[in-house]
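Appendix B. Chain record.
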Amino acid sequence: MKIAILSRNKKLYSTTALYEAGLKRGHDMHVIDYVRCHMEITSMRPAIFLGSTKLEGFDAVIPRIGATYTFFGCAVVRQFEMMNVYSVNESVAISRSRDKLRSLQLLARKGIGLPVTGFAHDPRTTDALIDQVGGAPLVIKLLEGTQGVGVVLAETRKAAESVIEAFRGLNANILAQEYIKEAGGADIRCLVVGGKVVAAMKRQGKEGEFRSNLHRGGTASIVKITPEERSTAVRAASILGLNVAGVDLLRSNHGAVVMEVNSSPGLEGIETTTGKDIAGMIIDFIEKEVKEKKGTRTKGKG
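Structure tokens predicted for this chain:
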């Protein structure tokens, strides 16, 4: 098969791992900087170009779309879909997962456990918003944040009011969430591929840090997840329409709650921690899907 990895940097661990896994299985692998692409929006003849080169003949694409370029990246994925190229994660699912509010609403509608979350626009609702999530301490998140950036733990009510006022002064959209104290600054990253949790790790924030992201100095260890946690992760990925996803769970007093679902999960931390060839599993999944000619359901719609 001819497979494209849509990535801005071919030297990133995840991109390299997927590229090498594909080569080992005899595929024709290409890394494409999707931001440098341009598209020809023509009836019945959709096309994508990289410079003067027309990108054609691909059987599948693996989107590794950065949060900064979600809108344009999804447009490129959608164009491939219109060209009947299989995408391991569809453009609609990627944009759905990147919208924190939309994804939480979809998960809540299907009964997935979530931290109590509030969303409001009117500054006069700040007090009600804080009360709604159980008061201080509480977590305040920028809707556009990623990798722990734009996430603040407000330990007092006054601090929460100040942070909310500051974010609103920047005209930013924010969420307020209950602080799951019993999680102890740790979360569980479940890597879902094709409707199965293929690997899981526990991420622990460094001393004094409530965010567990490895990019922020957190540490990772192998963890055994419960059947409930496994089911929650699989269902969360399915509800958002993602074939490959990193589902972040918190262990609360009332069971597993989903913190976030990532459509371009990093592979370095979880492969290193678990010793599993997750990149290879993703390529194997693509082989199976393309062989069965399942294709892209939306064909670029939405």
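Further analysis of this model is presented in Appendix C.
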